[in-house]
Structure formats: structure tokens, C-alpha cells
Amino acid sequence: MVDKRKRKRFYGIKRYFQLLKIYARMDLASLMRDGKFMAIVIIADIVSNISSISGIFLLAWKFGGIGGMDRFEVLFMLAYGNIVMGFLNMMGGCNALFPSRIIGRGQWEHMFIMPVPYAVQLTVGIFPFTGSSSFLSGIGMLWVAVCHMETVMPWWWPGMLILQLIISMVIVVAFSYMFSSLAFYAPVQCEEISSVVVYSMERTMTFPLSGMPMYIRYPLLTIFPAGLMAWFPTMILLGKAATLEGIYPAIFALLISLTATYYFRKGFRYYVKKGINRYVSGGHRS
Amino acid sequence: MFQAATAPEDIAVKVESVSKVFTQWQRNEEKSGRKDHSEKKIVHLFRQDKKTVSALDNVSFQIRKGEFVAYAGPNGAGKSTTMKLLSGILQPTEGTISVLGMSPEKDRIALMKKLGVLFGNRTELWWDHPVMQSFEWKKVVWDIPDTLYKRNLDMVTELLDIGEIRNTFARELSLGQRMRADLAMMLLHSPELILLDEPTLGLDVVAKRQMIDFLKKINQEEGVTILVTSHDMDDLEEMARRILMISKGKLAFDGSFDGLRDITGNLTHFIVTTDGRELQLEGCRLLSENRGVFEFEVDLSGLPVKVLLERLSKADGIMDVEIRKAPIEQVIAQIYQTWAEP
Questions:
Q1: Is A146 left (phi over 0), alpha (psi -120 to 50) or beta?
Q2: Considering chain B, what percentage of its residues have pLDDT values greater than 90?
Q3: Above 70 in pLDDT, residue B340?
Q4: Chain B residues whose beta carbon lies within 8 Å of the beta carbon of residue A18
Q5: How many whole angstroms separate alpha carbon A2 and alpha carbon A279?
Q6: pLDDT, tens digit, for every residue of B79-112?
Q7: How many whole angstroms separate alpha carbon A88 and alpha carbon A96?
Q8: Cys staple from A73: which of A59, A69, A214, B161, with CB 3.0 to 4.6 Å?
Q9: Residue B1 pLDDT class (50, 70, 90 cuts)
Q10: Low-confidence ranges of chain A (pLDDT < 50)
């Protein structure tokens, strides 16, 4: 019995990696379709990533830091945010990061006819070649920032970094899924709701919140948690947050993912039960 | 309307008392009876009426394994809703559905390994990849064993003549080529039952012929059960032996195409060629006349053939007579018209 369960689990893991591999291969194939296209995609992505954070970094450079964070601490924060969004963009191929688009465009129905669990379908759409520039540039920037910082990192620090990154990613995904659950009720109207939420958080996360008044900082750590995507984890990783504060992002991630799961499942049940096609005024685009 | 008793293992599809209800919001500005009353208008903007639409109403039918069944009905009758219910995309409001002995809702993953679904207005092909890449993707996602994949790939390549388009990008295919590639991809995992929603939509005569021949072949030789919807009744009659007709969400007919003709009273068309003389036949409706060629419609249940032939023999100047069954399109149109009447 135990053996059978183990074999089943191993088969599941093997299948998961097979699916990741086919999506990665398809991504490489589309990138290699023509050399010029490949170069344009890579250069455009690098330029876009650098320009998205350059404003804040130049301000930090000019004034020797922002709100109690020095230049390289600001760079660390920007790099952290880039890694979070870069990894999600890389893994969120086929709009897995923006499920409201899948629902609004009527593509959710394609998922029904595949003999693979929904959760697996939403996590295997990896784009490691066309979607990795933000992730890789984030790692490069993080390396530069860490090399220039005076703080000595303890041996467990890399583990803590990975844990905080995972927590930040869980928060972004949970927020996206929580809002996407509205698309089950009004697919056309809510098609872009997840991208609006995620991109708004992405734009806001680059602002260091150190020194900001409480009425700005607290909302950005609770109802619109852009502060948990880069700034607050940076404070934890640089030892600038109290020990108890350090567990707040994990608790928040747990609560928000439970809430998102509840609402997404509820919306999904409504979708299959009440129908989403042309009979409903807000049915998906055909 | 049920077929004769069939062993449960021989049933591919079992639909029992299935209803599917949708709710629509409707803005009713006439309701107050005072259209110019702006206050009422504003109230109705915020308080819209709910309307219940019954896409399927207590529908029951069975399809045996190996059958080729046509599923027809006017626009909005509930055909696509049925297809979506059978493939688990929607769940019924009431009633139960069993496909290949499984529940589309509870056994989705196991069922999808045995089911093929094709919606004519959608493609499952990867748009920015060659067709072959989509096939390889399907092999991995459906976990198709190597030998089965190879066997099926060879079969569909030959029968659907897709050898030349296998390496073409999906977005560069014509509609006919895309449909063939989609059909080929759907068959790679050897589905036992296939659901086709308007598979001949927009196809030219050659592409349509290829599609029909292929579907008949896999039904006869491989024993694949097929349920197909189409608005092209001639196509359906050529493919299927049984037709299920749905109207306003209710199953209105379940039987053969000849049985369907009987409903409309055995309508028959005949063409009479004269030497140029005018022709009038009692009990027959003149449909067209062109230089001595007259096309009539007659209901043979009201006017026996013998009587018709007697009348024709008494007419002067007749050079040729050709009798044929009324086109199924016309039979269906007449039925739809009857259904549409209040």
C-alpha cells in the first residue's frame, strides 16, 4: 500500500517535470525561430527592466539613500522585487499569473478537456527563455548590492532570502487569484482585473517605505500589500525589523492564500454550475 | 424515445432528466408604462429584472458504443450546452450524466483520457508553433505511450493527408487545414468517444468531404462513438444513422433521418420537363418553373404515388419525370418553422 502510494507520488513528480520540460522546449523553440527576433526580445526585456527601476535608484544615488536606506540597500530592495516578479513572470506563462484573463477569454474551457489537475496546469507554463530576463537581471543586481553592503550576513541568510522570496511570491499570486475569482461572475468585465492588481503592486513596490507616515505604510502592508513584495522583506533580511515583525509576512501570506483559495473555489463552482457562456450578459469573449 | 434495453457496459453516453438553467439580467424600461418618467427610468437602471433561460429542460437519451449520432436543432436550442455538459465544462442544474461509465464532474481526468472534444470555432493547436509541436505537447499532457502515439500519428497523417502541413505553423494554416490538424490532434490518444461541435463550420466542399469520409471511417473501422452537431443537415445525414433533435431545450426527436421525413408527411420533390407547355397538377405545389422544367412538391401521405402518376400520365407534352426525396434541409426547415410557431 505504502509502495503503491510512493510510486504514485513519484509518477506525479515525474509527470510534473515532463510538463515543465515540454513548455520549456516550446519556449526555446519559439525564441530560436529567428535570431533577430531572439536578440530583440532579450534586449527589449533588459532595457525595460533596467528602466523600470532606474528612477528610484538614481534618486537614491543622488541623495546617498532614501528614508534611512543607503544606496545599495535601495538597490537590494529593487533587485528583490525584480526577482519576485521575474520568477512569477517566468513561471506564469500561458497567463497562469493572470487567471482572470484565462476566464475572460474563454480559455478556461480548454483546461477542462486536459487530463491534468487544474493546479498542475496553472503551474507548468514555464517560459525560462523568453520570460527570464527580469529574474536574471534581479539576481545580478542583488549580487552587486550584497557585495557593496557592509552588513555581514550569517550562514542561514541565503535560506532566509529564499523563504522571504517565496512568501512574497505567494502574496502576489494569492492577490491575483483572489481578485480573479470575480471573473467567474463577470468574465468580460473582469478579464484584466488580475493584471491591473499585479501591475499596480509591481509599480508601487519600488518605493522604499522607510520614513513614510503610518497612514501610508500600513495600508501598503495590509489591504494593498505592495510593501510586502520588496520593502518589508528587505528590512527583515537586512536586520532592520524587529524579530516579531519578521513573521508577519508569513502569517499574512498564509491568511491571504487561504482567503484566495476559498473565493477562487467558490467562483469556480459558480462558473460550472451557473454557466458562463452567451446566456450570461457578462459571459466570456468568444 | 429510448433505444431498446442495452447492457450498461455498451452505453457510451447516458443523459437522464438533465436540465440546465441560466439566469439573465434584463433592463425593462417599458415596465412602468410611463417611458418619459425619468425617475422610474433611473430606478430601472439600478433594479434590473432577472430572467430564467432554460437551455435544457428534462432531457434524457442514451448513445450506445459505436454509434454515430447527429445532434441538431435551431440556433439557441441547447446543442452546445449539451456538448459542454458531456465534456464536463458545465454542470447540469438537475439530472445526471454518465459518459463512458464516468461522471464528467467527478472523474474528469480519467474521462478526458478517453474522450475527444472538438469545437469547430476553436482550436487546440498552439498558434505560434508548428503543428507537430502541438502533437508532441499533446503526447506529454495526455501521457500517450510511444507506440500508441506513433501508430496514431501515422494513421492520422495518412488518412487526413496532413504530411505536408505537420511542420507548418498553426497560424499559417487555412481553415480546412487547421480543422484537419485539430481533428488529427484530437485522435492521437485513441479516444473512445468524440464530441464534435460544428466540425464542418466554414469548410469548403473538398475539406468537408475529407472530414466526413474520415469520421465515417474511424466510426466504422475503429468503432469510435461519435456525437456531432452541425447546421448542415445534408452533412449530418451523410455521416450519422441516428439523429437527436432538440428544440427550446427539449428533446423533440430521436430516430432515423427517414423517420424525421415521416414527421413532415413524406414530402417529395419531382421535376417534370415538358415540350414547353404549361403544367398544373392538382394536390402538388409548384416550387419553380424555368423553360418547361417544373419543380413540384407533394406530400405522398396525402396524395398516393399511384394517383400522382395517373395525373401525370393525363397531362400533355411531358417529356421527362424525375422523383426525389425532399432535401433533409427542407424537412428540417419545415420542422423548425413548426416549432417556432407559438
A1: alpha
A2: 34
A3: no
A4: 140
A5: 48
A6: 888 988 998 888 899 999 999 999 998 899 999 9
A7: 9
A8: A69
A9: very low
A10: none
Q: pLDDT tens-digit profile of B266-306? A: 778 888 998 888 888 888 888 888 888 998 888 877 888 88
Nearest CB neighbour to A114, from listed B23, B129, B141: B141
Domain residue ranges of chain A, discontinuous segments joined by +:
2-274
Average pLDDT, chain B: 84
Contact A280 B87 (CB under 8 A): no
Kindly tell me the sign of the dihedral angle through the C-alpha atoms of B39, B41, B43, B45.
negative
Across the interface, do B109 and A29 touch by the CB < 8 Å criterion? no
- Looking at residue A218, its pLDDT comes to 93
Q: Which residues of B touch A274 (CB under 8 A)?
A: 22-23
pLDDT of B2 > 50? The answer is: no
Contact B55 A19 (CB under 8 A): no
Q: How far is CA B319 from CA A178, B294, B311, B326, in A?
A: 77, 12, 14, 22
Query: Under a CB-based contact definition with an 8 Å cutoff, are residues A205 and A226 in contact?
Result: yes
Length of chain B in residues, anyone?
A: 342
Instruction: Examine the pLDDT at B332 and tell me if it is beyond 80.
Output: no
Are the Cβ atoms of B25 and A281 closer than 8 angstroms?
yes
Pinpoint the alpha helices (H) of chain A.
2-31, 35-63, 71-91, 99-104, 108-112, 118-121, 133-148, 157-180, 193-204, 214-217, 231-237, 248-274
CB contact under 8 A, A112 and B91: no
Alpha-carbon distance B156 to nearest alpha carbon in chain A (angstroms): 20
Nearest CA in chain A to B114: A115
- Pairing of the two strands B11-26 and B94-99: antiparallel
d(CA B295, CA B273): 9
A58: which 3 cell numbers?
A: 538614481
Its ipTM equals 0.82
CB contact under 8 A, A110 and B108: no
Alpha-carbon gap: A266 to the closest alpha carbon of chain B (Å)? 14
